[in-house]
Amino acid sequence: MKKIAAATIALLTLSTSLAFAYDPQNAERIKTLVDTGMQYYWSGGDVKKAEAEIFKGITLHGRYDVVEQSFAEASKLAPERLDFRFAVASSQILQKNLDGARATYEEILAKDPTSFDAQAWLEALGRIRNDETEAGLAHQALAGLDRERAEAYRQRFVRAEQIIAEKPNTDAPALSGKVMIVTLGYALAKDGTAEKPLLDRLDVALKAAQANPTARVMVTGGQPQAGVTEGDVMMKWLVERGVDRDRILIEDKSKDTVGNVLNVANLIKRHTADSVILVTSSSHMRRARTLLEDALKQYDLDANVVPVVALDAPSVEEAAKVSADERLVIYRDLMRVSGLWAYPGVQQ
User: Which of 11, 51, 113, 199 places its Cα 20 to 30 Å from the Cα of 123?
Assistant: First the structure.
């Protein structure tokens, strides 16, 4: 089994590793900045408080602006730490500042011309912009660094474009062989109940389970509200409508789509499947399917992924339209799943 770097999350402890490299005052300041950046990356916080206490005299505009500024300041104190520059670029991408991210990756390459990760991101940015010339030039440079890995990324990008171009499917098929129905969660209401997008997904999952009576059903989502997770709520909803509890697997450790697909791929590796019926909203499917197929490939699994959408657009024709923002998040999260999402100690 191939090791998936993106599946491993470990928060970096800087107090000892940095103390010997910098004077104590800088080391402590860097640790504060990194801790602040990671706090706001994961869960946010009071932007005005960060503005007043951490970044005196600097105006901040939002959660990821705090993250970007944290690592930008850390990078000034430790310019040789290119991981801090990668964190700045990641924060810029989260804020849809593609020009800023491109400039940051070029800065990294100026310091380290052999950085495969920075060059791969330049190709991805070209793909996000749908600029074949930019992407092609970036790919040539990437192949010059590592031809085999560059080809693997080219194949990722080609497959993403194929998925983006497909018309959404709303019909739950009956499949032969060993089938796993994977239904992705959606954030619960504050009282722990399911919102309409999740209920729509569950309706589709139920149809798929009825059409495939021997299939296992995996429900995913680990963000708790009122003491329950999406996975808990989804499982109970299906059981109440006649799906045998023994058929249901719960993945309730993930915080977002990237975590969903990595944990799903790990569970499919353990439980095996010839085919995966993937259920989510039509606006979410292109991203979810792109990521899941990549995660399965990393686990050397050749299960066929069959998408079935819960329509959250006025029509299938409207659901087929792909915005610039959607292209960005598809490629952003594909790079994350591949392991190229650099914050200190975080590769997801």
Answer: 11
